[in-house]
Amino acid sequence: MATDLSKIQTLLVDADLNTRRILRAMLARMGMDKVTDHANLAEAAGSPATIDLVILDADQAEGAALRWIHAIRHGLTTLNPFVGAIVMTWNPTQQMMIRFAGSGADDILVKPYSPKQVQDRLVNLIENRKKFVVTSDYIGPDRRRSPREGQVVQLIDVPNPLRLKCTGEFDRVNIHELTAHAAQVIDSEKVIRHGFQVAFLVEFALPGLSVHPPEKRAMDHALRAAHVLEDLERRLPPGELRLEATTHIRRMENLLGILKTRGTLPADEVEALRREAHALMGLTSRVDDPEKRMNEVLAAVVGYRTRLDQLTLAKTAEAAASAGGAGA
């Protein structure tokens, strides 16, 4: 391997001591001796921002490692949000792969693995790391094989600590400035995505909130907006946008609080929730035309409803097939 891995600081988390010993030995043979290992995430939680690479067992604690990577990417831990992240698993089920894809991790290793497989993952992460993308609930490598037609997603260059360390560039750049700049770009993109998501959740919930009693699915989706609003506010830049957006956020939080407490909203307050959601999206969107913004939200709602209906039909068909097989 032409690159020098000796300066990389690695955090290894796996409940199995023997696995940690074997992997440490593999990494040491590649020149990586700056390895801190822990048996669980509780021990690793306070790891310093100087860590360049995390390698985590994804099988323990029902996906806690993948949730931790998601938190890292969203700036909710002590670690650099752009740290290299590789997860390990004995059982790459479809559910596991879906969780992996949504976590923001860079790569996955299926146990048992060879030294060459570990090395290949590291080389790929150093030399060919994918640019990041941002949605309302995701920050991480762009995994799309082909973007959806008409969809514009910004590709974001983020600092790669592994590459900087391996090429000797780390000491010639200001990693804090690079990280802060990338985080600012991501915050700006998150604000836009969150603004859209809030309007989408409210529009999706609207029909179900307008009946008595409100539909549970509509309630669940509407109340999800509260978490989106919280993260949106956290990422708003100081200035006029923050002042205006916060006004709409507070009004929506108040209405959602009433909905959660009472379990219903009067028709005028449902309409007020919708109005505030679209006003907030108007402030945060790149699209100036209100009609175009509305059409984009409604198209997303229709597409989502279609997918939910398809899932329901598939589950019904599967249940019918299972019942038929049991009867035979």
UniProtKB/TrEMBL annotation:
PANTHER family: REGULATOR OF RPOS, TWO-COMPONENT RESPONSE REGULATOR ORR33. GO terms for biological process: regulation of DNA-templated transcription. This is Response regulator. Signal peptide: none annotated. SUPFAM superfamilies: CheY-like (SSF52172). Transmembrane segments: none annotated. It holds the Pfam family Response_reg. One of its GO terms (molecular function) is transcription cis-regulatory region binding.
